[in-house]
Amino acid sequence: MQNAWRIGLKTCLALKVGYFENEKKAAQEVEIDVNVFCPFEKIKTPLCIENIVDYDFIFNSVQTLKTLPHHDFLEDFVIHLMAILFQNKKIDSVQIKMHKKHIYQGLAEPVVALHLSRENWQKKHATFL
User: Fold this and answer.
1) What is the C-alpha separation between 42 and 123, in angstroms, rounded?
2) Which tens digit of pLDDT belongs to each residue from 16-41?
3) What angle do CA 84, 29, 91 make, to 5 degrees?
């Protein structure tokens, strides 16, 4: 997205996720990479950092994932996080990538990613939730 701030956060959480029985026994380490995009025109003073989405908002939004019950798929966590992030009206677009760290004995990591604009989220969010 051009003419926008990109505010990002990368972290790792233990989430209750997995389809197979062995995955349901314990939380799994998931790396989460979040980017939110805030257009200049939506921010009163776009060069003043206090007027842009802060890292604490993104961090606290990501932390809510730890409180969710078990889900079979990472995609469920992505949609949940999108719903929280889009509550902030300054955010015009969200990009989320998640991947499980310790699957396939380190030979590969399953990854899911989604990048949605607010417009597309509003058109489709009812079908996601």
Assistant:
1) 20
2) 998 888 888 989 999 999 999 988 77
3) 20
Q: Kindly give, in sequence order, each residue whose CB lies less than 8 Å from that of residue 16, ignoring residues fewer than 6 positions away.
A: 24, 27, 28, 68, 69, 70, 71
Contacts of residue 9, Cβ cutoff 8 Å, sequence gap at least 6: 32, 33, 34, 55, 58, 59, 62
Type and span of the H or E element at 36: strand 28-39
- pLDDT per position as a tens digit, 48-85: 666 677 789 999 999 999 999 999 999 999 999 999 99
H-helix or E-strand containing 119? helix 118-128
Reduced to 3 states (helix: H, G, I; strand: E, B; else coil), residue 116 is strand
User: Can you state the angle between helices 74-85 and 55-63, rounded to 10 degrees?
Assistant: 140
